[in-house]
Recover the amino acids of this structure.
């Protein structure tokens, strides 16, 4: 069974993503019995994340549901990532391009399933479980990356989702394990707390952490 626990935790943590549970449930429930539907729903999940961001950031898409519904996948990906300024340096262009290609390839796989096939060759064209498992794991990694990046760059104002030290427990633990403590005014304190005092530097380090983490997984 597919287990999208990390993505599910994020959907509960941030209010704007709570309805992603609908897609997560669909993927997990049909994974064993209908891999094609699981992959199709995985593609729709990423499209939902991208369209949610684009609708929040661009007024014409927010005010025109048909325009948002009809946007092609390639345009959806490129417009969304460009709008949130995901590519800010040459160092991560290769990673972002790989992520864009992965999303587009998933869409092509989904489209391939949407057309009728000769029943004699249908079984041979079905995705193997190992391949499907890898695809769905990649979907979760990409989805979590997009959500975490968007939340730290564009948090909901005046709500619980605002930048809070406690919201980044995994990152803080990694910082403290990696760098230990630092001395401030002759007092040893954790690196994560010291860095959080400079929120801009903290955000930049967090984005680097996400890029490396997802790059290693993918």
């Amino acid at each position: 069974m597919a287990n999208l626990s990390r993505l599910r935790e994020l959907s509960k943590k941030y209010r704007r993503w709570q309805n992603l549970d609908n897609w997560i449930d669909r993927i997990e429930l049909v994974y064993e019995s209908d891999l094609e539907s699981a992959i199709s729903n995985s593609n729709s999940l990423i499209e939902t994340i991208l369209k949610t961001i684009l609708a929040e950031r661009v007024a014409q898409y927010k005010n025109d549901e048909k325009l948002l519904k009809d946007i092609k996948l390639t345009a959806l990906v490129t417009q969304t990532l460009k709008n949130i300024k995901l590519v800010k340096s040459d160092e991560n262009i290769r990673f972002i391009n790989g992520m864009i290609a992965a999303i587009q390839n998933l869409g092509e796989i989904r489209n391939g399933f949407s057309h009728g096939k000769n029943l004699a060759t249908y079984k041979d064209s079905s995705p193997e479980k190992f391949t499907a498992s890898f695809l769905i794991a990649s979907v979760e990694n990409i989805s979590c990356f997009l959500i975490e990046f968007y939340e730290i760059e564009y948090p909901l104002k005046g709500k619980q989702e605002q930048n809070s030290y406690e919201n980044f427990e995994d990152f803080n633990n990694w910082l403290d394990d990696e760098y230990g403590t630092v001395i401030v005014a002759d007092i040893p304190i954790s690196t994560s707390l010291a860095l959080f005092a400079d929120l801009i530097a903290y955000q930049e380090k967090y984005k680097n952490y996400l890029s490396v983490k997802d790059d290693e997984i993918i």
Q: What stands out?
A: Confidence is low (pLDDT under 50) at residues 158-162. Residues 129-153 form the longest helix (25 residues). The chain has two domains: 5-158, 163-218. The chain is about 70% helix and 5% strand.
